[in-house]
Fold these 3 entries.
Entry 1:
Amino acid sequence: MRPADNTENLIKKLRYKAGTEANDRILDNVMQALEKKEKQKAGATAPNIWRTIMKSPITKIAAAAVIIIAVLIGLNQIIGSTPAFAEIVRPILTARTATFKAIVEVEGAPTQTFEGMFMEPIRMRQTTSQGAIVISNLQEGKIITLMPEQNKAMVVEMQNIPENEDQSQFNMFHEIRKHIQEAQETEDESVSFLGEREIDGLRTIGYHVKRPGADITVWADPQTKLPVQMEITMGPVTYTMTDIIFNVELDETLFSLEIPSEYTVRTMQVDASKPTEKDLLEMFRIWADHMDGNLPSVLDMNAQMEFVKYQRKKMKDKGQEPSEENILELQKTIMKMSRGGMFVQNLPADSDWHYAGNGVHFGGADIPIFWYRPEGSETYRVIYGDLQVEDVSPENLPK
Amino acid sequence: MLEDRLLLWRFKRGNKGAFRLIYEKYAGDLLTLAANLLNDKADAEDVVQDVFISFVQSVEKFRLRGSLKGYLATCVTNRSRDYIRRKKRWQSAAISDVQEVVSDEGSPVKLVICSEELQKLSRAMTELPYEQREAIVLRLHGEMRFRQIAELQSISIKTAQSRYRYGLDKLQSILNGEVRK
């Protein structure tokens, strides 16, 4: 066996050396970040009122009076308080553009990383670490995925988009912005202060926004009041944005929905109309068809994962590798089913919905699996295991 | 140490040249540290770049308590861990990555390995549990004391020493052909 110090000496020799090109590139990028920071700072720096007060001749004569005034107008503001939620989120709400790095973590699936760009009104460009480019323009109702290495493109066209609905769940920057706006409008207790946390050596302060179906966390530099990390969790999906830079000059062509002529294009139409109870029934039906007669164990985004895992397992058991056609078919099925999920997600809080389908087999005529109260109704809609629906008074609801 | 404080002082007053000197002084060591932790040249460059970007962006509030190199090395370690956690690819990709790094002579990051013995060692490092590997890399490339490693890994000094020692023992065994994956 080798002596330990011999191994230690060998390890010390495991050295990596950056080539000039890489070295210059890193240094350039760092210097650019520094310049951006200086520009932002120049725009954001407020006069140091404290220093002004202390320099004033009045201070020497009547410091006590100054302090009293300071207390009256809010000492916290003068010496640098914890910035309020509204200050921290202002850049998010007012940004014309933003660039960021994104990490998408989905329970049970490999983590994905993106370079993201947002442009108003609701445009997004994301480049995956594998080189695929996803561009969405939700006003146009279109999402395109370009795969330059394979010269392939996938187009998702959203049809029947209702007015005043922006399908923002396809644009996480906008989704976060929307939730923050709603939280501010309702002035409820959905916003809480998280205190301090160090992110990459930088002291930050955080706020948590709790919304129906979504948890949002924003960590910001208390000095510049600029968000440095934002996170949105929706069911099993967590989307984290870091390295956020607001109001960067971005070329419109980056968000172009035109597909290069040499690409092979596949198009998928998605019904984006307001989902109804019928969509929920359809979701249960499709689920049972694909899941050997069972119904979902839960009705949130975890259900999608459960579905995909089961389909993969079924294929694996048959010794099949999913083909491109299989994947496309699965995507279509999930898109169709997701309308049922959206119906539930959109139900107002006072709809008092319940799901009891876990472990229930499709066809159970006497087994209530889902019930809710439609808006303005005194009775409940109860869906049974055979997907029959009945209006039921509150006193006759399942216990 | 004094020189670092002076450079920092100048940089905080807007002297970009001072930052360049800091960069030139430590980028190489940090890249070695990151590359040994991540075993991926592109990720190592990303990590070092991100650490320096965070550093320049927060330098006004930065107070140097220990050594600047120690601070930057800690940032690289934390960020490397994030990379590994996020990419969840340590176990599966480590070996193929190191082979790529070792053989890729024309790449921007060169692994300066002259001997076959060092190549074997580099591959053997990928077979260690991450925490043992991290303890070894921080000790030998980050020049950290066991107390600092213990703090970074949130463990006792004794455990940090054990991780280092077990890691070295395992490396020796692998190099002697006693352990197979």
Entry 2:
Amino acid sequence: MKSYLTLSVLFIFLTVAYSYSADSSSAILPQKLSSPQAVLPTSDAKEIPAKSSDNPIDAIDNEYKDDQNLDYANDTFKEERIEVADPLEPFNRAMYQFNDKLYFWALKPVAQGYQKAVPEPARISVKNFFSNLAFPSRFLSCLLQADFSGAATETGRFTINTIWGIGGLLDPSSGKELDLQKQDTDLGQTLGVYGVGHGFYIVWPVFGPSSPRDSINLAGNYFLYPPWYIQPWYASLGVSTYDLVNSTSLRIGDYEALKDAAIDPYVAFRDAYIQYRMKQVKARTTKIFPSKPLEVNSPAPEPVSTGKGN
Amino acid sequence: MKKEIILKKFSFIALTVLFIFSIHSTAAAAGLFGAPQTVSKEAGGLNTAIGYRYHEDTYTGNTDHIIRQNEIYSQAAYGANNRWEIYARIGVADMKILDVFSSTDTFTTTNKNDFADNRKYFGTLGSKGFYPINETFGIGAFIQGTYYFNKFTDRVAGNSGSKPFTTDLKVDNLWDVNFGVGFQATLPCGIKLYAGPYIYYSEAKVSLAADIPGLEYADGNVSLKNKSIAGGFAGIDIPLAKGFRLNVETQFADRFSSGASISYVY
């Protein structure tokens, strides 16, 4: 009896723990979870266009029928639900507020001043330069993903941009003729490709949204990003801050737009981050294992025809 | 088809990497004169290049010395209308001066005869203009100047009489200026052949740190200059794939110099 009770408690504990740690098995595969956070599905009923009808009663009927026809368990709908555990929500919200204030009070004013002083082509060149320096992280990630074509492309890009792009200030590799595109990958995605899930959502001060998996990426970038090796430490910090100010100056307004559009910006940024990372991992997985069946990547079934409407 | 494209890309990347790593690590580049006509797009645009030149010449100070340099450089240029171009280069070069430590005094012996130093930075500025005579032929002129930002230094040791010594020879403020006229013939496929005469002047201050009997330049700040002032150059500029071009050139003044560069046209 005692052992039965112990087993029952253990079973309940494991069930709860499993449901709480949401997508710990894979970031690619959306799973049901009991996270207290609301999730904003990317497609909801409001986005479905109303069908026109001459008879207003028919129109109302059709509308209700549409609602009835909406299958919330439908795979199409399921695969667009983005869910992540958020056990550190109070801490995360505090860090979100901190980063928000850091952006509006410090980073944005500096970036705006910089934007006025430096013309856009020069800022793009600086961005190219720092992007070129981030080559080791992308190269290693490609190798770890066994994406040898991507690693070769990155090597070619780095060589060409460094030599013929004046140290990486210009990006001839991305041009039509060479067409060596930057490999959008990092160490966090590498873990994702091999099935490591996000774990839970965490907001780091200064670094922003992340997860335990993507935090490894932050640590990896520290070792693989050459500016961090500049001595003394404040010089490397200065260079990295300049990189941040420069890149911010090129996208002032993006953050504000997303924030203004959200009812709860914290939730919106969390979901946007998770969705963005999931899509990146999905894209890499599709590239590397084209034949591997992915639940999230499975083709959506054709919508059920009601025989009415347009 | 896709495989072919990937294979082409791989070949291209492999060749590029091979070219970069085949350059000797101590090699450094003032550079080539290039075709008189700019390779930039007619509407105006950038072209960048990496180049290597082996330079050999006879310089004269107190006596004549053969100077050898390996130069490697990166170039950024802007040209337009197929008529003009301005360019800037930055690079590194080594230097070898033959027999500069050979003693003329029988009581002085040295551990080596040649001066050698590596990796000194230089910058070059230049411009060129071109006038097409017809679709095939044209004439152009260029002027370019180079300055070495660092001193070349080498240490020599030996015995003077029965006393051992160690001293440094410094080559400071090395600069040169070149002016030339080039005749160009444009062949099918965009291949450009060119040749022409040029004049040049080069100078450096040479000084030995200690007054050692039998060694030159002990009196300090002797000017080392090029022996001949005129020469000729000839080269070929070949379009490669995907916006790249190969330029191979030979220059002859008192001795032969030659080099190659690969440029990318934006």
Entry 3:
Amino acid sequence: MPDLVLGQFAGVDMPDWVDALLRIMFIVALMTVNAFALIYLERKILARFQARVGPTRTGPIGTLQSIADALKLVTKEDVRPSTADRWAFELAPYIAFVPVFLIFVPMPFTETWFIRDLNLGLLYVFGVLGLNIVGVIMAGWGSDNKYALLGGVRAAAQAISYEIPMLLIVVSVVMVAAGRLATDGDVSAAVSINGIVADQTTTPYILLQPLGFVIFLIGALAELHRPPFDMPIAESEVVGGYFVEYSGMRWGMFFLAEYTALFLIVLLASSIFLGGWNWPFGADVGLGLQIVLTLVKTSVMIVLVISSRALFPRLRIDQLMSFSWKVLLPFAIVQVLANGIIMAYGGPDWVVGLVSFALLLALFGLVFALTRTRKGGDTTRTIQTTPARPRVITSPEVTAVEAGGGD
Amino acid sequence: MSSFGFHLAFWLLAAMTVGGASMIIVSRNLIHAVIYLVISMLGVAGLYLTLSADFIAVVQVLIYVGAISVLMLFAIMLTPRAERNNTETSLKLPAAAVMVLILTATVFVALDTDWGAVRQAALADQARLIGQSLIREYVLPFEIGAVLLTAALVGAIALARHDDEDAAIHAQSLQAEADGTAEDVALLTDPPLVEVEADAGAGEDGGS
């Protein structure tokens, strides 16, 4: 199926740049509506978890609450700390936001509805997502605030660490797709998101790569700064993280970026693991049902991600890092190796799925075993903190206070 | 590939690349320099796109913009006594010599290349072609690269881990504390903080 040409609806030929402009406007509109919907949804779902009812006053059952929030943000004063690095501080929200905006491009909503079907769509998503980190660090550093800097560094460290298992899992998904497409299609579609979705007409990849799905979901929670991985924006530890010093619409842009990224990464996960616009196990469906299927799969996962905020306590930053590097990364590497070995010897799809499922059980078993020993008698075990080297600081005030307290 | 938009894109990207690169040199603030480096690298990625090398463009963004620049920002921010300014250095002359060599090589390659290939249609399926040539024709350079990266990884771990030295410094400080030779010195470590403070408090109480 060819690319969707917007002019077909109006029955007119339009120049390329008009077409491009319309597509960009479509992205902006969708992004805004999505952020409004998600803010409302998050408030309502969290309220239910905490035995409250959430917003009820603004509009019917509180549905206009997001609009009220947005109005408040837009009319708020835009404050910049006097010691802040002016350019870094003012540019950071845009640099954090634009990459997320760009991820929209290769996302398939139905078989023919996307902005552009990029040949290297999956790689493109991760490449562009990496840009986001630069904006976050700029915000943290440019604010000239300790907490903002800590939050920014935490966000960047976390994003870099969890990107690696996620990318390896994407590699393993591309391997499976390439193996399947080599027999009945065009291998070059294996890195295109729509190509991967189109290959899942009979088997969603969650059945072939269950471990991949779980690691991708954990990585997505970390990339999105969602609990239990929300240390970069943990109020009790770093006040608000890298956007403490922001107010008004600049702060709003960070949140717009977060909610857009939530929608897009979850849409990506539901595309490459749950089959996107496909009805599972066969049955060719029409365009209208395809968009419903995409949105239903995405919505279910969004509800899962939002409820994780009410369900899980926050991890510690060292636990977070060691979980990525010592647990997820080895499992992701083993998954890629296993796929390669099975496919090199021409193993059928169900072997790939079975091995991945066994690895998933091993992952669960390992995590269970680790948490058991932590809970058991060995409570004195201390975690090696990172700055193990003592630093000598001459501080007469501190000693004076201590001496006074001692007397 | 010779439309107005294509030319506009080329000149904008070229201005972005060269402008970003010059600002790196001019900028006095190291963090700003890294941000200009990001802009310059994005311009290079865009230039790859105008040459229809989309795989290389994406990899450029993924590795250089997303990872290496972030690593540089980390290195600058986490090195406690690093000079944050783009100051004078004694390595000016060697750096200039190296840059002249690189520039000469680049200009030579640019003049020697047959740019007629640019006007041909884009290669389809580049990722697969690159992968195949890496594994088949250029497998030796590929493996050498892999060994180099592994060596760098092991080296980084070796540099980051020096438990013995840490332990020695720690023991020395504790000894100084116990001897009373470190009276105006407070030790700031994470786990033994309580311990050290308790010792210091006890010492002072005994003294008074």
